[in-house]
Design brief:
Layout lengths: L18 H6 L3 E3 L6 E5 L2 E3 L1 H13 L7 E5 L5 H13 L12 H4 L2 H4 L16 H7 L7 E4 L14 E6 L2 H18 L12 H9 L8 H14 L4 E5 H6 L1 H11 L6 H5 L2 H8 L2 H5 L2 H5 L1 E8 L2 E8 L18 H15 L7
Parallel strand pairs: 4-5, 4-6, 6-7
Antiparallel strand pairs: 1-2, 2-3, 8-9
Bound molecules: 3'-phosphate-adenosine-5'-diphosphate.
């Protein structure tokens, strides 16, 4: 019987009994943007929530051949890509893209394309976030997403197709910094959970590789190398290229996903409709994204809880180069230099 066609048994791996003990063995750093601390696991930094989710995914996630996985370092354009993937795959099912039942008009893209490693409250089954993914019907391909670095992905994922979106680190840093301010106030983090940290201090940590799922450059490089080794299975896209020539890149994405736009669809304006539906202007003005909330289920030894963030926090400016308005010329130059040093030799510019 195919997975997803049967009643799903809850995955056995729950919160490791020795979670605190396990965390205490890992290298630790002051966190910014996530509350608590960052822990270094398999060469990358995580908050405890994302780390636990990553371990869950590594232990329990079973990929299917038809899965599409969107991977990204946080704040690189995940929300936009999720919207595009849904709009591309669903464009024939919903008659008109503007039909009031279209998922993107009633849900935030993060509620439509689930993460491997964290679950929104609505889709939590039992106490393991992976159980919900197993329950999805086998008949249609699953659209999934992750911030897990390539080298730490659950092994079964490596046989499937992956789209990676990368963005220049200057805008990523600013985007995350602004998001973290919102996140901290929404979750009323107590001072000891959210150490007050200046932007300059957070910048220093980011430059030293300490950020959610960082080092940022190692994250990008893992997927970049995979895309050069397995171009048919791993598509590498840059946020800035998507902004510059959206039509070209959306067509390429649709082809990669096995849902190319026909010339008839192009003539009838379907491609343009998909782009407009997923545009920053359209999505950020929808009621659900203006006033809705995204709630992440959090399991811990002290009970189950949730973290939340306003959907509007996923839509700030949506522009290339906003970092110039927030970072000094020296900071911008420093990030450019690190990027050149880390990625230049691999022929990658961000
Ligand atoms: P996540 O990692 O929390 O999912 P992610 O979606 O990757 O966040 O990144 C958010 C950034 O994408 C925001 O950038 P900014 O802070 O510089 O503004 C957000 O505005 C931008 N964004 C969201 N939706 C779109 C869209 N439809 N088009 C272009 N940019 C978008």
């Amino acid at each position: 019987m195919a997975p997803g066609d049967r009643e799903v048994e809850e995955n056995k791996m729950i919160v490791p009994e020795n979670l605190e003990e396990m965390l205490s063995t890992l290298p630790k750093e002051k966190s910014w943007g996530a509350g608590g601390c960052f822990y270094k696991y398999q060469g990358f930094w995580y908050s405890s929530v994302w780390l636990l989710g990553t371990i869950w995914a590594q232990q329990c996630f079973k990929a299917r051949e038809t899965d599409f996985l969107l991977a990204s370092s946080p704040k690189s354009g995940t929300t936009w890509m999720k919207a595009l993937m849904i709009a591309i795959v669903n464009r024939k099912h919903h008659g008109s893209l503007s039909s009031s039942s279209h998922p993107l008009l009633i849900k935030n893209p993060h509620n439509c394309v689930p993460f491997l490693e964290v679950r929104d409250q609505e889709h939590m089954i039992g106490s393991n976030p992976i159980t919900y993914l197993d329950s999805l019907p086998a008949a249609s391909p699953r659209l999934l997403s992750t911030h897990i670095p390539y080298s730490s992905l659950p092994k079964s994922v490596l046989a499937g197709r992956i789209v990676y979106i990368a963005r220049n680190p200057k805008d990523v840093f600013v985007s995350f910094w602004k998001f973290s301010e919102q996140f901290a106030s929404k979750n009323n983090q107590k001072p000891q959970e959210s150490p007050s940290i200046s932007m300059e201090e957070a910048f220093e940590l980011f430059c030293n590789g300490v950020s959610t799922n960082g080092p940022f450059w190692d994250h990008v490089l893992g997927y970049w190398k995979a895309s050069t080794e397995r171009p048919d299975e791993v598509l590498f896209v840059k946020y800035e290229d998507m902004k510059r020539d959206t039509m070209h890149h959306v067509k390429k994405l649709a082809e990669f996903m096995g849902h190319p736009f026909s010339s008839e669809e192009e003539r009838e304006g379907v491609l343009q409709e998909v782009i407009e539906l997923c545009s920053f202007e359209n999505l950020s003005n929808l009621e659900v994204n203006k006033n809705g909330t995204f709630q992440v289920h959090v399991a811990s030894q002290t009970g189950q809880n949730q973290l939340q963030v306003d959907n509007s926090a996923f839509f700030r400016r949506g522009e290339v180069g906003d970092s110039k308005n927030h970072l000094t010329p020296e900071m911008l130059e420093r990030l450019d230099k690190i990027t050149q040093e880390k990625l230049g030799t691999f022929g990658l510019e961000l």
